[in-house]
């Protein structure tokens, strides 16, 4: 049967896609598709014989020289249907002066663009439709280098300065000598100790430092009274643990029942990466951007900004919350705990502990201690000669009186002599005891004062005022950030999700790569397989054909 030649062939130039299928053009409908390609037509042939796409070649009445700069064709077999077929020109061969042979490969993506529907499949990576910060956290297989410090927070906050002083003692300073003990509890544990603590100095509800005068006066009281043995410990502690109302001080005298608390608000870094402002928000997630907490003594803990669940107040200030707990009763310790982290209200397992607050050394007076500890003995030694004298005198007087009454002159004289001798002996004994006590006290006065609390009194970290939590906003270097940002620009984010692939969610281009792509197609089976393989290999859809390959455009959302 004779078929009247009635096909139309357009030869195009300047089409920015090729058969490696790394790029293609996205169209909303077939008319938009036709209009785009039609404007690139260089040669038009009508009344051409039926074109067979699988044969892969055609002859046209044109010299080869006229088509060497052409790279695309579109044709329509109008005798049968109105469908346009699109194909890549592989080669142009000379046949004669008026004929050339064009070899082509069907462009299955454009030819069947509106004849298949993507089904849900495993999407390996793609450009996302929502690039809200801290949303996309699937790990990427791309190097990011060694993290560096981007910003520092809470480095010099007065609340953690170890300027306060706390002491524990077995007796109250103002009731020295009173053996009465009050049954108390320290952090819930039974304890018979007394506590003295520095006081905060505040101005307009802002803590500016500490007042140690009261504590130092109390310590002086113990030492001057020779009661240094009552002092169990004297430590420094951070300002926030010093009681602003003196309820933990010597005026109260009881150990604290609850740990001191301090809320800490740390800003999230959403501004830049080492000075570089990324277009892709995933660069603000771990491991490119994260928070590091250090106790300045070698212990650090890393936190991911995206794993904090912000309160409404935190959202207003773009911050995350930690809480510091401090126990100051003998060997103070501070623990800094993340709040609402990884869906846990208080994540103690990821806390950082600060310890090693130095003891304050002090000198004990040996003489004062001797006098305090032996005051009763010394008083007894002084009164013993007097007691003996009184007893001897009473006996002598009795004998003298008896002798006079009986006329016994010898007995009377003996009794009188006894009384006189007792008085002289008492005086001598008292002078001797006093001299011995003074000599012993003089010897003790020459004894060097004993130093207490020296074993843990040194700390370079505390001496340099660095015994505090410090928050570092860590990030990759700007050099790596630019590389990664460019990578995300071109190939989107790792997805690893079963879904319908994205093809048109960005202003200029959308990349997608699948695994085991599935489509519902109205096209030959081999072309269907090829389309699926193209998605599995990865392809970029461009909204404007004139922009294909122009990655300098801002494709962010």
Overall pLDDT metric? 81
Q: Order the strands across the largest sheet as they lie in space.
A: 3-1-5-6-7-4
The beta-strand count equals 31
Question: Rg, please?
Answer: 48 Å
- Biggest sheet: strands, sense, closure? 6 strands, antiparallel
Structural class: alpha+beta
Q: How much helical structure, as a percent, in the residues? A: 25-40%
Calculate the terminal CA-CA distance, rounded to whole Å. 58 Å
Number of helices: 10
What is the general shape? rod-shaped
Low-pLDDT residue intervals, each spanning 5 or more residues = 176-183, 246-252, 366-373, 444-449
% residues in beta strands: 25-35%
Would you summarize the structure shown here?
By secondary structure, this protein is an alpha+beta fold. It is built from ten helices and 31 strands.
């Amino acid at each position: 049967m004779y078929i009247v030649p009635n096909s139309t062939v357009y030869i195009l130039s300047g089409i920015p896609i090729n058969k490696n299928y790394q790029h293609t053009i996205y169209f909303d409908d077939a008319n938009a598709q036709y209009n785009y390609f039609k404007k690139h037509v260089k040669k038009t042939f009508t009344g051409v014989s039926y074109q067979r796409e699988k044969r892969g070649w055609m002859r046209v009445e044109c010299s080869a020289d006229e088509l060497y700069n052409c790279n695309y064709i579109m044709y329509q077999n109008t005798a049968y249907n109105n469908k346009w077929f699109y194909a890549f020109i592989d080669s142009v061969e000379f046949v004669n002066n008026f004929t050339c042979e064009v070899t082509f490969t069907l462009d299955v993506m454009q030819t069947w663009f509106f004849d298949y529907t993507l089904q849900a499949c495993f999407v390996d990576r793609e450009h996302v439709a929502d690039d809200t910060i801290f949303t996309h956290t699937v790990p990427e297989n791309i190097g990011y280098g060694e993290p560096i410090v981007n910003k520092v927070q809470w480095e010099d906050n007065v609340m953690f300065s170890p300027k306060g002083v706390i002491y524990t003692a077995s007796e109250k300073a103002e009731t020295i000598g009173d053996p009465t003990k009050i049954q108390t509890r320290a952090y819930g544990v039974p304890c018979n100790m007394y506590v003295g603590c520095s006081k905060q100095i505040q101005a307009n509800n802002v803590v500016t430092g500490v007042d140690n005068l009261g504590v130092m006066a109390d310590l002086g009281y113990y030492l001057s009274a020779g009661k240094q043995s009552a002092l169990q410990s004297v430590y420094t502690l951070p300002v926030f643990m010093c009681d602003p109302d003196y309820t933990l001080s010597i005026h109260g005298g009881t150990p604290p029942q609850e740990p001191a608390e301090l809320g800490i608000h740390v800003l999230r870094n959403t501004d830049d990466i080492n000075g570089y402002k990324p277009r892709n928000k995933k660069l603000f997630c771990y491991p490119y951007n994260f928070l590091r907490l250090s106790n300045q003594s070698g212990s650090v803990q890393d936190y991911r900004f995206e794993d904090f669940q912000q309160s409404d107040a935190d959202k207003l200030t773009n911050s995350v919350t930690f809480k510091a707990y401090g126990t100051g009763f003998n060997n103070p310790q501070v623990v800094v705990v993340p709040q609402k982290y990884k869906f846990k209200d208080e994540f103690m397992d990821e806390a950082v502990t600060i310890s090693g607050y130095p003891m304050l050394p002090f000198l004990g007076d040996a003489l004062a201690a001797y006098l305090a500890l032996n005051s009763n003995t010394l008083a007894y030694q002084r009164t013993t000669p007097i007691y003996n004298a009184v007893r001897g005198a009473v006996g002598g007087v009795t004998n003298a009186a008896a002798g006079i009454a009986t006329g016994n002159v010898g007995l009377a004289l003996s009794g009188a002599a006894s009384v006189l001798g007792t008085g002289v002996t008492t005086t001598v004994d008292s002078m001797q005891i006093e001299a011995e006590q003074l000599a012993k006290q003089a010897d003790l006065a020459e004894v060097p004062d004993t130093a207490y609390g020296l074993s843990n009194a040194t700390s370079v970290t505390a001496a340099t005022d660095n015994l505090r939590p410090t928050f570092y906003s860590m990030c990759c270097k700007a050099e790596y950030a630019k590389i990664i940002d460019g990578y995300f620009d071109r190939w989107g984010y790792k997805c690893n999700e079963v879904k319908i692939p994205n093809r048109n969610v960005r202003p200029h281009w959308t990349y997608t790569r699948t695994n085991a792509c599935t489509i519902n197609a109205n096209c030959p089976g081999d072309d269907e397989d090829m389309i699926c393989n193209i998605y599995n290999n990865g392809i970029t859809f461009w909204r404007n054909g004139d922009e294909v390959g122009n990655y300098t455009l801002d494709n962010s959302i």
